[in-house]
Design brief:
139 residues, four-stranded mixed sheet, alpha+beta, 4 helices
Length: 139
C-alpha cells in the first residue's frame, strides 16, 4: 500500500527531543514482495516543522514522496519534540539552555547530550536505529 506508516522510538524520547513516532513513506513499488529492493532516504524537518506543529503538512506536501514514487525510495521522516525545562532529568541554572522550545534537531547539545554531533549522540543514534529497523538490520 502506498502511504505512510508510523515508526516508534524506544526509550526516553521526549526528554531527548524526539517524538515517539515518525513516519515512513512506502511507494507502491517498495511494498513487501516487490521484485526489487528499494533504497532509503532520511528527511529531517527544520525548526517548527515537526508533526507536533504542522501535523502531516511537512511529510506529505514537500514533494519528496512524489520523488520517491518515481525512484523506488522509502522515505523516513523522524520527528523532533519541542522540549521544556520540566521534561529534563535535572533542573539547574543552565536548564533553559538545555531546552528546545522550537523543536529543532540537536545542533547545540541540548538535553545535556554532549555527544550530539557524533554517532553516540542520542538523536543520531535513534535515527540510525530507525534506519536499521526499516532496512531489516536491527531489532
Amino acid at each position: 500500500m502506498t502511504g505512510t506508516c508510523r515508526v516508534r522510538v524506544r526509550g526516553k524520547a521526549a526528554a531527548n527531543g524526539l517524538l515517539d513516532t515518525g513516519n515512513l513513506y512506502v511507494p507502491k513499488a517498495c511494498e513487501p514482495g516487490a521484485a526489487r529492493r528499494c533504497r532509503l532516504h532520511v528527511v529531517l524537518h527544520g525548526c517548527l516543522q515537526s508533526a507536533e506543529v504542522l501535523g502531516d503538512e511537512f511529510y506529505t506536501k514537500i514533494g519528496v514522496n512524489e520523488w520517491a514514487d518515481t525512484n523506488r525510495i522509502l522515505v523516513l521522516y523522524p520527528q523532533v519534540h519541542a522540549t521544556a525545562v520540566a521534561e529534563l532529568s535535572s533542573q539547574d541554572s543552565s536548564s533553559l539552555f538545555n531546552t528546545n522550545p522550537e523543536g529543532c534537531w540537536n545542533w547545540w547539545g541540548y538535553a545535556g547530550d554532549k555527544q550530539f554531533l557524533t554517532k553516540q549522540g542520542v538523536q543520531v543514534g535513534a535515527i540510525w536505529s530507525m534506519v536499521q529497523r526499516v532496512t531489516g538490520q536491527g531489532n
